[in-house]
Amino acid sequence: MAEEKKSLNFIEQIIEEDLQKEYKKDQLKFRFPPEPNGYLHIGHASSICLNFGLGERYNAPVNLRFDDTNPAKEEQEYVDAIKADIEWLGFKWARECYASDYFQQLYDWAVEMIKNGDAYVDSQTSEEIAEQKGTPTQPGKESPYRNRSVEENLELFEKMKNGDTPEKGDVLRAKIDMAASNMLMRDPVMYRCLHKSHHRTGTEWKIYPMYDWAHGESDFIEQVSHSFCTLEFLPHRELYNWFISKVSKPGDFEPKQREFARRNLSHTVVSKRKLLQLVEKGIVDSWDDPRMPTISGLRRRGYTPDAIRKFADSIGVGKRENLIDVSHLEFCAREDLNKIAPRVMGVLDPVKLVITNYPEGEEEWLEAENNPEDESAGSRQVPFSRELYIEREDFKESANRKFFRLTLGKEVRLKNAYIIKGEDVVKDSEGNITEIHCTYDPKSKSGSGTEESLRKVKGTLHWVSVKHAIKAEIRLYDRLFTEETPDGVKDKDYLEFVNPDSLKVVTGYLEPSLTDAQVQDKVQFQRIGYFCVDKDSTTAKPVFNRTVSLRDSWAKISN
Questions:
Q1: Alpha-carbon distance 134 to 178, whole Å?
Q2: Are 262 and 322 within 8 A, CB to CB?
Q3: Binding residue per annotation — 153?
Q4: Which residues are catalytic?
Q5: How much of the chain exceeds pLDDT 90, in percent?
Q6: Does 82 share its domain with 222?
């Protein structure tokens, strides 16, 4: 038992302590509360995995609640995308809820607060209100409208609700303490006038609740036991509790807010505002561009749900913010794809290889293992012929002893095929190699068991038969930013660090087993990296995205 307790993270410890004190297990309920004003990113994935993971651990319900209190920025598109992301990650919510479900209840409670002297309508401008807030070391000043009569406040609040008050006009504020040490307790705004159509309620409402008012009350309505927020909401906890105390009755079950630290990811930004800028400025094509840190972008790039869940689990939750290197996320992708991705051959920078002693017009089909990590994956047939493509970098006319690929006068093995020997090259008028001529040993066929086939050579090359090759668009994605913390460099705009090489498009030649590859199919191009079929792919023009290279190419740069 001691070992099991030791492995608990601090949030699980909070829950365990609550269960030993006042909570019963059947009272446990969690929630994931996104605002539908953008697509979810990798930071949200950690929060999703935390809340839904707790639900699985304690066999407790987890609500998906959309905090849709700002119609100016929220859209149904984002709601649909968020639901798709959570389902793709493999989680199921108990109830689909919306803060907008509670607009009438929130309004009714606000009216009661006015009647009880706990809220008032302020007719000052937002600038005047901000100026009167004071500073962390100086108390604020009370609004000249703070002591309006209950009747006047009710009348003005009704006008706000009916749309008779202009936007940026009156606001409803909680009446707490303008001298409070926590500045959030200095009469925070509860409602503002906003004459925008809401994606669910249309034009029914002309006032909308602020986050601090709607969030805790929504938790209370849903009887959420633990409301987990990121660390910046720690100062909000006092206000969260105060608001709930104003609507609860003795004996009511009240939720607890607790905070954990963000896990930031290197070489990217996760601010929704900045991600939207990347889309609007055309730096990326869309929210699901494979360079984006959005869950939909990672999915399109070829990441698996298991890889993202493993990443979230491995970085855990803590009380201090820290920066996680993106290489760790890439490692999780490689580790998962290594188990499930079939090995295939593709050549991305081709040069023709002619086997001069192989019979012209002849071809044969060779057996190739699909995945050495998975015995059940079986094998496939790969066509072999006189003319092949190999990678241009796999040949040098002359090379030192450390070059274990093809060169003149030396032997290498062609994967699943024969041992060949470099004999000659053909060049164009500018001296570029257009063909490599070689000879092969007919008795060295892989797996044949002959003495020649067992001969050891130092290099093995992948290849594709020219006659049978599929021509495909290959999108080589890399990190979107060259700087580790692009939005954390003083006096620099994060856009200055956009990686100009974050996407290179090349034409590749692939083995014909990929003819029927479907969108999101994942493969390993041997000796190159992991790839998946993009949604832009067609039968006439296949498109493959690079998920990750086989090794971390940035490790050398940073060392």
A1: 8
A2: no
A3: no
A4: 35, 262, 272
A5: 93
A6: yes
